[in-house]
Amino acid sequence: MKRGFAPDEYRARLDRAQARMNDESLGAILLTTEPDVRYFTGYLTRFWESPSRPWFVILPASGLPIAVIPSIGAALMAQTWITDIRTWSAPDPADDGVTLLADALREVVGPSGGAVGVPSGPETHLRMPLGDYELLQAASGLNFTHDYGITASLRAVKSEAEIAKIAHICTIATRAFDRVAQIACEGVALSRVFRDFQRLLLEEGADWVPYLAGGAGPDGYGDVISPARDSALLRGDVMMLDTGAVWDGYFCDFDRNFAIGPASDQAKRAHAQLSDAVLAGEAAARPGARASDVFAAMAAITGGGEGAGRLGHGLGMQLTEGLSLTAQDHSELRPGMVITLEPGVVTGPDRLMVAEENIVIREGGAERLTRFSGKTLPVL
Amino acid sequence: MKRGFAPDEYRARLDRAQARMNDESLGAILLTTEPDVRYFTGYLTRFWESPSRPWFVILPASGLPIAVIPSIGAALMAQTWITDIRTWSAPDPADDGVTLLADALREVVGPSGGAVGVPSGPETHLRMPLGDYELLQAASGLNFTHDYGITASLRAVKSEAEIAKIAHICTIATRAFDRVAQIACEGVALSRVFRDFQRLLLEEGADWVPYLAGGAGPDGYGDVISPARDSALLRGDVMMLDTGAVWDGYFCDFDRNFAIGPASDQAKRAHAQLSDAVLAGEAAARPGARASDVFAAMAAITGGGEGAGRLGHGLGMQLTEGLSLTAQDHSELRPGMVITLEPGVVTGPDRLMVAEENIVIREGGAERLTRFSGKTLPVL
Description:
Two copies of one chain form a homodimer. By secondary structure, chain A is α+β, with helices and mostly antiparallel strands. Chain A has helices at about 5-25, 35-40, 75, 100-110, 130-140, 150-155, 160-175, 190-205, 265-285, 290-300; strands spanning about 25-30, 55-60, 65-70, 85-90, 115-120, 145, 210-220, 235-245, 250, 255-260, 340, 345-350, 350-355, 355-360, 365-370.
């Protein structure tokens, strides 16, 4: 599996963005977050973990993107297809790139008089200090508005090269899940299982593991977002591990449930019901269907329990991105969208079990990216 | 080492914030990011990896914090010292917590008429969609302003309990670095070393590894932020690994250099020079000194090469936070600040070597949190 993308891929992304920008009379789009910058440039580094420096990429209405970035990133950015790279020595308490960015935006937008679009819709944030954003608006004298969801809508439909990367990390994580019996059984602390499962993911080929959650308890767990406890797994527990591991910047996001010792009838029933719900979601996940249709198909099996708060979501360059499988989200499924199917079943007071699988929407329907876990709850 | 903090610790943080808020006539502070929310609540989860849901905490000018969060987080937030927890079912495309938050802010600020402070200075961002922020301002009818740096200045000085957690993860990472000979030698791909080093960190007790960078090349490396290449380590390379690993939500951030096969005289000299620079920085890092003084002490040894762009920075709940060791940053060092000393030496065209150690500022001077690497470049 080759890392990175061919320059054509970035060119195509830019072309699609520029067509939409022209429709909306945007003079430029200003990008500030890791996935948005990476989507249009290929700039991949874990250095975003440091909040100390802002990073900017300008998509002009025509012509090539401009990177306005801290000088520490210049060498790595120069390895991408981006050629116009403007740098400053960050962090600079007097002017942390604001003047450089304002000048670049004026240069790009000036002739057209169009507005600068900034991603402002669901799941977005502006990754620069609010104080600097105000300075930028004043210094540039330009009109700032939202990006009309252009960035998000482009990212929602994956190319074949993107799908291949997601499929690759799904395969890696599947191999790690196949080895859980090596690290988990009655008496082992859940926190140790979390550590060791991250190790298995790395051994099987994940670049890194940005996300791991899960839980354990009799016939289910209390929630799906808590850090692991140091207490030991007990006979009769159901343990769940849910990982967002990454290969070349693309995520998988799926989980597996395991019974510690023989499973109770209730846990077995719940697991089978989750499997049925996943299959119902898979059948409903066809081009033209709405996110809410896939939600309804799964909720009909599980009795409407929301489980993890929604019954699935898009994924790709982020652990979760794009549509939500809820009753309220009527986004249309399109070929190339990658989503999770994540039904939940309530198994007791403050107890639930959750399943999660990953699929890609194809012309003919859903194609599996994970090897579905099936009805039978595995026993450790 | 115990996880979490006693409620007294959070109470003290809140008291200090409220004293400063009263000085600035703020009616409330609105927090939206993971470290800011965690600092005042203890809310710790890797679920922030998902960008789909905003999270809010309100610090009132008097009284206890209010969490305004997605319902999926209610159970975990209820395990913290926070008692006023208001939830909505997120993501909600019609109103993603905006009305609930506006109502809570009006309730808190209404009587005083004070403004709502939002962290807006260096290293901050607003973790909610800009579009929703505009709706919030309109819906609440309140005056929004910056937080006068209150949040950042409180977080910059660590309590003994915080320092103990940072020391703990430094010790864990030191043990992992002591095992690098088990995973790296001539012929091994750097990308494999990166994977295996993350595994060692987990085996030694890190909860997770948000950051790993490094490089390898003859007498040094090209930059310190690139992902690992799949090409093999060669005899004569200097390899550097720089990790930000986490225990209970607190980071270490330091690196180690290794020669692959016998080190060249130039690499040996550079490593010794880096060690001297670290010691000069350590000696200068006393209460009352400025960040720029520590920078100057190290730059005098290295000849002013900026290496990683600055010669160190604060750390704690984030990989980098607070002051920067640059000529421009005149922040005063205070007891309880935890910083890195990170000098760099240019070893050739587009080549450098960087050292990094972690210290805490005490009344009497610097106290080491890492076991300093010393002058001798280890050979693998």
